């Protein structure tokens, strides 16, 4: 054997050895990569119960859920999804999750924080409205021109427990919350209309509904003066650690993201689908007003997508600032950490949907003549 042959043979043996080592490393690493990158959807016939925080489903606010049901997204993801009206209330509403009566809630930041502080282990896994969704509505002839003018005034709420939403907003503006008088009524907008309160807490979507029923209001738009986060979809904190339940939640929230994407691409179609669900909404609002009610919330829902962060992203720093203020106000018994109340753990999973398919669905949806003629009164992102 020549010297060159011996060198070639030694090189071949070394190459084969290295290939063997690489194969062993690859075999060891591949399962971990497959597990971390695995797509859990669809799941096998799991049921998910979603509860509204309003005590009713008869609103335009929840259009991504109705879109996902109507177009079969939830079903294709292996889910049976039930939407329930819930009850209008405080943190005890979220106890329904830990009691197993529901799987997903939709709390405001104040209600969520109070629940966690009370020992109810829930966490927002999908931030629906990353900006301030709450507004203040005043009579058109009121001398209240800005949020600062609310100091010393009477504010109407559906129930006085709703002050846990309002106090942090006012404190953010430097208003003495002890100067505020709160009054509660199931028809709290009427209290302002009748002159029994100076302002009412409202929110995007609701202001269009109030305009529809003839309230002569001006609206102080919360997103123009407040940076606080708003409502999100809350789940049991333990579900993030249980592989099976984690997969179910990821798939449910993917359906929500698909509904949001569909609505962003074809707002009129999302509006038509949602409007068709409820006779009460059709009696209360024309399609034009219903579309505007939905659009007001759609604009907030789409903000993190517009920023390139995907649907459902939570800004942890912004949440921490809000939670610190709650503690300073005495609304929580301890200073909660953002990681205790919100999570981005499922963000990549629920944003990993087929965007081309949703775009095709949005483009192909057949609008009625009435809905096709409607124009948006503002932006959707």
Characterization of the model:
Mean pLDDT is 90; it is low at 1-37. The longest helix is centred in the N-terminal third of the chain and has 35 residues, at 3-37. By secondary structure, the chain is an alpha/beta fold. α2 crosses α10 (267-275), α8 packs antiparallel against α12 (287-301) and α9 crosses α17 (355-364). The chain is globular. It contains 18 helices and nine strands. β5 (154-157), α6 and β6 form a beta-alpha-beta unit. 46% of the residues lie in helices and 12% in strands. The chain folds into two domains: 46-130 and 229-372, 3-Layer(aba) Sandwich (D-Maltodextrin-Binding Protein, domain 2), CATH 3.40.190.10; 134-224, Periplasmic binding protein-like II (D-Maltodextrin-Binding Protein, domain 2), CATH 3.40.190. The protein has helices spanning 3-37, 63-70, 73-76, 95-98, 109-117, 163-172, 188-193, 206-212, 243-265, 267-275, 279-284, 287-301, 303-306, 316-329, 338-341, 347-350, 355-364, 369-372; strands at 46-51, 79-84, 122-127, 134-139, 154-157, 181-184, 199-203, 217-220, 232-236. The chain starts with a helix and ends in a 9-residue tail after the last helix. The strands form three sheets. It has a five-stranded mixed beta sheet. The chain has a two-stranded parallel sheet with strand order 1-2. The chain has a two-stranded antiparallel ribbon with strand order 3-9.
């Amino acid at each position: 054997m020549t010297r060159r042959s011996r060198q070639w043979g030694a090189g071949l043996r070394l190459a084969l050895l290295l290939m063997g080592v690489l194969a062993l490393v690859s075999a060891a690493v591949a399962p971990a990569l497959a597990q971390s990158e695995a797509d859990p959807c669809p799941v096998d016939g799991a049921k998910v119960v979603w509860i509204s925080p309003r005590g009713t489903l008869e609103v335009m606010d929840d259009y991504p859920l109705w879109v996902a049901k109507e177009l079969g997204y939830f079903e294709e993801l292996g889910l049976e999804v039930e939407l329930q009206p819930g009850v209008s209330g405080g943190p005890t509403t979220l106890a329904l999750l830990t009691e197993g009566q529901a799987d997903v809630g939709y709390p405001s930041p104040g209600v969520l924080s109070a629940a966690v502080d009370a020992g109810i282990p829930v966490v927002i896994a999908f931030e629906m409205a990353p900006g301030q969704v709450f507004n203040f509505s005043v009579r058109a002839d009121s001398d209240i021109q800005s949020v600062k003018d609310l100091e010393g005034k009477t504010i109407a709420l559906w129930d006085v427990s709703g002050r846990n939403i309002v106090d942090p907003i006012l404190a953010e503006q430097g208003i003495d919350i002890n100067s505020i008088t709160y009054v509660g009524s199931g028809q709290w907008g009427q209290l302002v209309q009748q002159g029994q309160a100076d302002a009412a807490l409202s929110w995007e979507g609701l202001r269009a509904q109030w305009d529809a029923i003839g309230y002569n209001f001006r609206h102080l738009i919360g997103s123009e003066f407040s940076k606080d986060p708003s409502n999100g979809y809350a789940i049991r904190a333990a579900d993030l650690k249980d592989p099976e339940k984690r997969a179910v939640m990821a798939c449910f929230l993917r359906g929500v993201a698909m509904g949001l994407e569909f609505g962003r691409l074809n707002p009129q179609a999302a509006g038509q689908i949602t409007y068709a669900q409820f006779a009460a909404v059709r009696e209360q609002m024309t399609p034009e007003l219903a579309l505007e009610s939905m659009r007001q919330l759609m604009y907030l829902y789409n903000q993190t997508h517009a920023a390139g962060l995907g649907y459902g992203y939570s800004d942890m720093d912004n949440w921490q600032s809000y939670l610190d203020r709650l503690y300073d106000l005495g609304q929580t018994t301890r200073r909660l950490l953002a990681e205790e109340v919100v999570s981005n753990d499922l963000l990549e999973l629920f944003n990993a949907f087929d965007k081309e398919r949703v775009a095709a669905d949005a483009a192909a949806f057949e609008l009625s003549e009435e809905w096709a003629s409607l124009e948006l009164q503002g932006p959707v992102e």
